Amino acid sequence: MYSYNGKILQVRLGDSPALEETPLDERECELFLGGLGLGEVLLARRVNWKEDAFSPENALAFMVGPLTGTIFPANTRYVVCGKSPLGHWGEAHASGYWAPELKASGFDGIIVTGKSPRPVYLWVHDGMAEIRDASHLWGKDTYESEAAIREELGDRKVRVVSIGKAGESLSWMASIMGDEGRAAARSGMGGVMGSKNLKAIAVRGSRKVALADEESFSAAAKEILKKIKSNPTCDFLKNNGTPGTFSICAYFGDIPTKNWRLGDWPEGYSKLGGEVYNQEILKGNWHCRGCPVGCGRKMEVAEGSSEPQLVTGPEYECLASFGAMCLVDDIHMVARATHLCNCHGMDAISVGSTIAFAMECFEKGIIDEKQTEGLDLSWGNGKAVVALVDRLARREGWLGDLLADGTRKAAERLGGESTNYSVHCKGLEFPMHDPKAFSGWALAYGTTNRGACHLSATTYNIERGMTLPDIGIAEPLDRFSSEGKAQMVSRYHAFTAVLESLVACKFMVYVGLTLSDYLDPLAYATGKRRSLDELMKTGARIYHLGRIINLACGLTGEDDLMPPRMRGEPYAEGNAKDFVPDYQPMLEEYYRVQNWTDEGVPRLERLKELDLEEFSDLAGY
Predict the structure, then answer these.
(1) Distance CA 358, CA 407 (A)
(2) pTM above 0.70, yes or no
(3) How do residues 343-369 score in pLDDT, each as one tens digit?
């Protein structure tokens, strides 16, 4: 099996732990590629989707793809997936150096089940694996854990993913961190890892990926590298990273502000954007392995009396979640809150959104200073935001425990009007892009399998003028119109599922790569040629299997609906004022485009068309 190692490491934790290699099925690699797709199909057969996410029987999969570990640029991501504590399919993605090292260690993925009676970490190296005691690591933050494991193993090139305090306390917002600040953040996968008493996974390897046609692959990869470097957006991202897009999003009214209540905040936005970022906190770039862009940001922090150290700085989503959402205009406070999230292993989108939710509850008298133990949650209080990040990670006090599982759970406990302040879909807080600025976001958020997600269908690209003709999106679409959005989102879901299964960086779309650019390299790597239509069908298959798993978890079409705030009053200010997306007709059209029932269930003929008939029982047939 060219470009694959052909085996998965299965880890069973418990009183009598077990490690076992299982072969990959070549046909499944053809149908599901790798990464997300293989994670779905392997877990679909192993997991009882009615079980609680924190049950020892829940499986947690770490997967890479067929191009991982090769010289193909910007293909160093991994996906971690399983049942989310939110109650449905969960997945999180991150890049850096860990994924290529896992591939070099001899495996295409790791599936973990069971629960260790004490904290442990997994050490995987050159086809071998062992479970090691991690009692001395429990309680350490993610930076400390990485450093301690490297020192213990005596190799600074060991790559580590770990959980922090949030994962240990089983927060539903806990992430898995690697490479000192790269987050597999969304849907609570860090909490699942913590529920197994698995502190970290360390990997090291020397295996070279075997390719079907190495010479042609190398030539194709070099041409792709030239194409990326020649695109002007490459330099823009290198110089500004995602914070550079802050002013662009502000112009369109796309930045959620004051917990989705304001359409504009010019005096605050001006203190948080890319220019201020570069002047105030930027200390350098961070490159994922083999990437010519280097969009990651580095900043300095000093802990206590120690010398300043370079750490991962805020991305756009952090500037919006801790900044605009909470009306904090001090970029240093936003940076501090972000760093704490990375140390504790927490999803900055959900944490910032949850703090904004708490601030609104405080403003409306639903939460008072007695319950906050004297913490002033007034809008704009950056010190309170920083303090609350720490409390959430530790479940400290009544308030920390209330908020540790996100806004949906907190609103259920508080009741009353607070349910209107929780902006989520399927329990996952909205990303920092506003459906009242681009109507396609609403449909993308509502129909993504893991819950509200801006990466599974980056619809505002098309609503700002981009086209992707090779995947059937040939014309830009009006951002305030519903027309064409169902077809666009359905195509985008399939396209993105392919990228998440390769596992490729989606930022490559911004520097000019199309799905067509992956056809030759994938053929040279695997020895199997696919057409564009076949690859898009593969993407649709992967997306639909995620939908089927959600149905097995008990979700229905009701879980695709928008929260009250997205159905309510339009903004009175900004460049997106006076608009609310007309969601229901878009959703109904989307169901028709996908050949689903009115209840959001893929019809049996659709499953047969996508070679998913084997899983029809999970869909209720």
Answers:
(1) 8
(2) yes
(3) 999 999 999 999 999 999 999 999 999
